[in-house]
Amino acid sequence: MDNFIAKIAIIMLLAFTHSHVAPAQDAVSSGVPAAEASVDSAAAALMDDTLGLDIGAATDSVATPVESVGFHKMLKTKYIEGSAGFMSFVALALVLGLAFCIERVIYLTLSEINAKKLMADLEAQVMQGDVEGAKAVCRDTRGPVASICYQGLMRIDEGIDDIERSITSYGTVQAANLEKGCSWITLFIAMAPSLGFLGTVIGMVMAFEQIQQAGDISPAIVAAGMKVALITTIFGLIAALILQVFYNYILSKIEHLTSQMEESAITLLDIIMKYKLTR
Asked: What is the model's pTM?
């Protein structure tokens, strides 16, 4: 540790001397002894050996700016290189698929409620005999859970079997509403890579046609066709992956809402049974 501190002190001293001493060539021309010029070279050598720095290389690396290409610019370049005709179909499939995904996400998010709190409020209203108040709570609450509960309360004076059949039938309708538009999302998930593969096949055909016209297998001709083919495939797969992530998220929200509907339907039947027994 002491040796390292001593080396640092020597380097700082030599660097200070270096800043006040002219180079060796100027020293000779101005009549300064050559010993002082040698101090300059010795200081540089000592700094290089001690810290492991290459001053010339560091200067070059700082002076040379690094050109960075933006992601959007690179994406635009690859889009054009992949033949704008086929890439437009892939982009259209991605945009339409995302539109359906966003619509489903918004709908399902607005359909989510605190089902346990709703059922507690309904139980309190029903057990007090205020069935109309319980219906008003269901009407003022959004989502399929509240709709199913309202449907059951509408038939509270009927038999328990009739109420259960009504809740089951209406629950099936609400489940179908939750899944509305999901078939279109699966369609675009399948279409995006298919369009990419179609561009790949057409790019290969174009490459072979260019080889046939040129009468020679040139690496440049083959590489151009292969590049177009592979870029369309890559963009098609990326679009399908993005839509697949959204689709799985939508399915998870649908499963959560379906489980809420089933649990709330069972709870509502229990509440109605208690209400009938207390009358």
From this structure: 0.66
